[in-house]
Amino acid sequence: MIAAAIAFSMALSGVSSGNVTNIDNLPKLFTAACLDGQARLSAGAANPVSFAKLPSILRDRLGRPSSGQVWQLNTSGRAYLYVLNYDSHRGVSPKICGVAADEMNLQSALATVEMRVVGTIGPHGLRGTQWMQPQDGYEATVTTAAEFKVLQINWLNDSDRATALHEVHAVTP
């Protein structure tokens, strides 16, 4: 599983995901961290924080991870990167990776994630979208949680992935 290979080192110098202090680069950070499995941030671009330091609206939606890492990103407004692990059983994602920010542009983020996940950009009038990618082992979501715009990957456990692949094949001609 790609998610298992996520290797973050927030102390690395050099920025492969753009200048994180610029709120417009958060979707690129998301794709680098959550889809590519690595994000390189310049020193001081993020500070590790505990899960308990996330705003309650985010904590409530993320449930009770068994472990993980959370960083507060040094941007205007409030922005967070999180990689969380959960006890694996049917219906529960074993790993969730996401970026949440209160000042991120939702439509721009939607376009960035959609281009990366499906290779095209469709019209968006929605407050969020979800893409099921069982062949790649995840579900991608762009949505809102109160004032936060949330970009998130929920990795599928083996059982849920097999079920989703079966369902996709059943409706695909």
Describe the secondary structure blueprint for this structure.
Layout: H1 26-35, E1 46-49, H2 56-62, E2 67-73, E3 79-85, E4 95-101, H3 106-118, E5 129-133, E6 138-145, E7 148-155, H4 158-171
Antiparallel strand pairs: 1-2, 2-3, 3-4, 4-7, 5-6, 6-7
What percentage of the residues does DSSP assign to strands (E)? 25-35%
User: Helix content range of the residues, please?
Assistant: 25-40%
State Rg. Answer: 16 Å
- Please summarize the sheet with the most strands: 7 strands, antiparallel
Count of β-strands: 7
Unreliable sequence segments: 1-18
Structural class, from secondary structure content? alpha+beta
Shape, principal axes of CA atoms? globular
Taking strands numbered 1, 2, ... along the chain, how are they ordered across the largest sheet? 1-2-3-4-7-6-5
Q: What does the average pLDDT come to?
A: 81
Number of helices: 4
Q: Please report the distance between the alpha carbons of the first and last residues.
A: 28 Å
Element pattern in H and E: HEHEEEHEEEH
